[in-house]
Specification:
This protein is about 35% helix and about 30% strand. The strands form 2 sheets. Strands 14-13-12-11-7-10-9-8-16 form a 9-stranded mixed beta sheet. The chain has a 7-stranded mixed beta sheet with strand order 3-2-1-4-5-6-15, with helices on both faces. Helix 1 packs across helix 10 and helix 4 packs parallel to helix 6. The two termini are about 40 Å apart.
Length: about 350
């Protein structure tokens, strides 16, 4: 890994659960421009074990105590979805920058409520859509924004697999749990359709927006058969690009995620792997003028670490935001709400008209 820079962002991680253990603790320790300054969790047994493993400078049982630490500069919110907005608000009000796991919020109104506090405090909020830091997707984005010319159509799919847990168990660290962990008042998995949309649909929606821009309207159908949830979503982008999204949980095959884009001067075909393999997407970029394709290797596939490094560059050096900002997070929530409303109504829904929860 790269040598630590002289000036590093001092980061605190809120929550010591699976996503922190699998992604964020390691990202802080490996990042060239950040360090794991603190961790926070109400579960003493879990926090103590994580502190012994990852060696933060400080650990806290109380979130407000961590936020009161004058040496703390930024917070990664790695809690259950229901806690994202209140935790982000408290951090922003304390003058700390925030990298919040996706989805940003569970409703349009909650997501939009963060606008005022971020503006008032001058703090940065980035949403953890880490796929924007996949080198394959970045190469596709550069082609789309440059020589490809006008985009005509985008198809994207995100299909979780029935085999994903044996595969991820083989590569992830052993997950440590605690009976004392704080849980949301409602079981997130009580409504599986909502849970899958928030957990997986948020990635699919953000990838579509990353490539094709703002979504104007959606026309969605949901099939629940044979123990599967399958959304087919026709998308109208503000640019006039036609779109189609496929979110299916869980397919009886290998992990199936990718995209296909047709453009004026070329096309892009991408295959994305299970994120816990830390393997960059295989993206073939066809340039019409050259009559051939190219593919970047993307040897550095640690999307979570690269995401944190991009966030730290924004905070420390005023670098351009390459991740998903607050407005991207709000737009993702709005799109998921629109998809849910379209499924219920059986009609197309314009994003400008939606409100309420996912």
């Amino acid at each position: 890994m790269s040598k630590k820079e002289d000036r590093v962002l001092r980061v605190g991680v809120l929550g010591c659960g699976p996503i922190a253990q699998a992604a964020h603790f390691e990202s802080c320790t490996k990042a060239r421009n950040a360090t794991l300054h603190a961790i926070c969790d109400v579960a003493d047994d879990l926090r103590t074990r994580m502190a012994a493993t990852h060696a933060p400078s400080r650990d806290f049982a109380d979130y407000d105590a961590m936020l009161a630490d004058p040496d703390l500069e930024a917070v990664i919110i790695a809690t259950s979805d229901a806690f994202h907005v209140p935790a982000a608000r408290r951090a922003l009000e304390a003058g700390k920058h925030v990298l919040c796991e996706k989805p940003l919020a569970l409703s349009v109104e909650d997501a939009e409520s963060l606008r005022g506090v971020a503006a008032a405090t001058g703090t940065i909020l980035q949403v953890g859509h880490m796929k924007r830091f996949d080198a394959g997707l970045q190469a596709a984005k550069a082609f789309i924004d440059g020589p490809m010319g006008q985009m005509v159509a985008l198809k994207a799919w995100y299909c979780d697999s029935t085999h994903r847990y044996p595969m991820t168990d083989a590569v992830q660290p052993l997950m440590v749990t605690s009976a004392k962990a704080r849980k949301p008042a409602e079981n997130p998995k009580a409504d599986l359709a909502r849970y899958y949309m928030l957990a997986h649909g948020s990635h699919l929606v953000d990838t579509a927006r990353y490539f094709a821009g703002e979504i104007a309207a959606v026309d969605a159908r949901l099939s629940m058969r044979a123990g599967m949830h399958c959304w087919f979503v026709d998308v109208e982008f503000a640019s006039g690009t036609l779109g189609h999204l496929d979110l299916t949980v869980a397919v009886r095959m290998d992990w199936h995620e990718g995209f296909q884009i047709y453009g004026e001067h070329g096309s892009v075909l991408g295959k994305t792997y299970n994120p816990w393999y830390y393997r960059s997407s295989e993206v073939d970029i066809f340039h019409e003028a050259e009559g051939g394709s190219r593919r970047v290797l993307g040897a550095d596939g640690h999307f979570y670490r690269r995401q944190l490094e991009g966030f730290a560059d924004v905070v420390l050096h005023g670098a351009p935001m390459t991740g998903a900002d607050l407005e991207d997070g709000i737009a993702s929530v709005r799109a998921m709400v629109a998809i849910a409303q379209s499924v219920r109504s059986g009609r197309p829904v314009r994003l400008a008209d939606v409100s309420g929860p996912v």
